[in-house]
Specification:
The protein has helices at residues 27-33, 38-58, 78-101, 117-130, 146-162, 173-177, 225-236, and strands spanning 7-9, 12-14, 19-23, 63-70, 104-109, 136-144, 190-193, 212-215. It is an alpha/beta fold and 245 residues long. Helix 1 (27-33) packs across helix 2 (38-58), helix 2 packs parallel to helix 3 (78-101) and helix 3 (78-101) runs parallel beside helix 4 (117-130). The longest helix has 24 residues, at 78-101. The protein is globular and about 60 Å long.
C-alpha cells in the first residue's frame, strides 16, 4: 500500500494525490501590493517554492510539477525576462546540492533551445547530479506551453511515419501520450493555481484532462502550509469518476 495514503480516521483512509502540478501565479501582484519592485516578487516566490517542496516531502507526494516560465512569458519586458533567466540559473547553482541531499530528482520540461548555453548547461548538470534520486520527482516547466508540447509530439510522430516506422492508422491516444512531456510518471492528480485566476493558461493541457482543479486567491508568495493543506483536503473530498459512473 502506498505510503501517501496517509491519514486513518476510524476505518477510512484519506488518499492524497501522488502528483501535484502548480501554476505559481501572483509574484508581480504581490510585489505591487507590498510596494516592492516586481523582480522582488519573483525572489519571494522562490521562498514559497522551497516551502512547497518541503511539504511535498512531508506528505510523501511522489511528483511535483511547477509552472515556472511559460512560452508566452517571453512577451514580458526584456529586463524582466533576463532577471528570470538569471534567477533560474542562480537557483540551480545554489539548490542542486540540496536537492541531491534530500533525494529529489530534478527534471526540466519545455523547449530549452531559447535558453542561453550557460543556463542549458546548468540544467543538464542539475538533472545529471540528481538523476538517481527517488524521494520526489520535481519537474520544472520552463519555456513550456501545452500547445508546444502537443505540437512537438506531433512532429516526432510525423517523423516516424515518414520513415515508415509507424502506420498512421495505428496512431491513437496511447501513441501520442508516449511523446508528450511527463509521459513516464504518475498522472497528474491535482492542479493548483494561485493568484485568483480561473484558467489553466496553456499548462499541460493534454496531461490534465482528468486532473482535479483547485483555485485560490492567495498570491504565490503568500501561499503557505495551511493553503497547501486546504488544497490537499479539497482533493480528498472529490469523487473522481474519470468519465464513468
Amino acid at each position: 500500500m502506498e505510503k501517501n495514503k496517509l491519514i486513518k480516521k476510524k476505518q477510512n483512509i484519506i488518499f492524497y494525490p501522488k502528483h501535484i502540478a502548480i501554476i505559481m501565479d501572483g509574484n508581480r501582484r504581490w510585489a505591487k501590493k507590498n510596494k516592492k519592485l516586481k523582480f522582488l516578487g519573483h525572489r519571494e516566490g522562490i521562498k514559497t517554492v522551497k516551502k512547497i517542496i518541503g511539504l511535498s516531502l512531508k506528505y510523501e507526494i511522489k511528483a511535483l510539477t511547477l509552472y515556472a516560465f511559460s512560452s508566452e512569458n517571453w512577451k514580458r519586458s526584456s529586463n524582466e525576462v533576463k532577471f528570470l533567466m538569471d534567477l533560474f540559473k542562480e537557483v540551480l547553482d545554489v539548490e542542486t546540492i540540496n536537492l541531491k541531499k534530500k533525494n529529489i530528482r530534478l527534471k526540466v520540461i519545455g523547449n530549452r533551445n531559447k535558453f542561453n548555453s550557460s543556463l542549458q548547461d546548468a540544467i543538464i548538470q542539475a538533472e545529471s547530479l540528481t538523476k538517481n534520486n527517488n524521494k520526489l520527482l520535481l519537474n520544472i516547466a520552463a519555456n513550456y506551453g501545452g500547445r508546444w508540447d502537443i505540437t512537438n509530439s506531433m512532429k516526432k510522430i510525423a517523423l516516424k511515419v515518414s520513415k515508415g516506422l509507424l502506420n498512421p492508422n495505428n496512431i491513437n491516444e496511447h501513441i501520442i501520450n508516449n511523446y508528450i512531456c511527463l509521459n513516464n510518471i504518475f498522472p497528474i492528480d491535482l492542479v493548483i493555481r494561485t493568484g485568483g485566476e480561473y484558467r489553466i493558461s496553456n499548462f499541460l493541457i493534454w496531461q490534465i484532462a482528468y486532473s482535479e482543479l483547485y483555485f485560490t486567491k492567495k498570491l504565490w508568495p503568500d501561499f503557505d502550509k495551511k493553503d497547501f493543506q486546504r488544497a490537499l483536503n479539497s482533493f480528498t473530498k472529490r469523487n473522481r469518476r474519470f468519465g464513468g459512473d
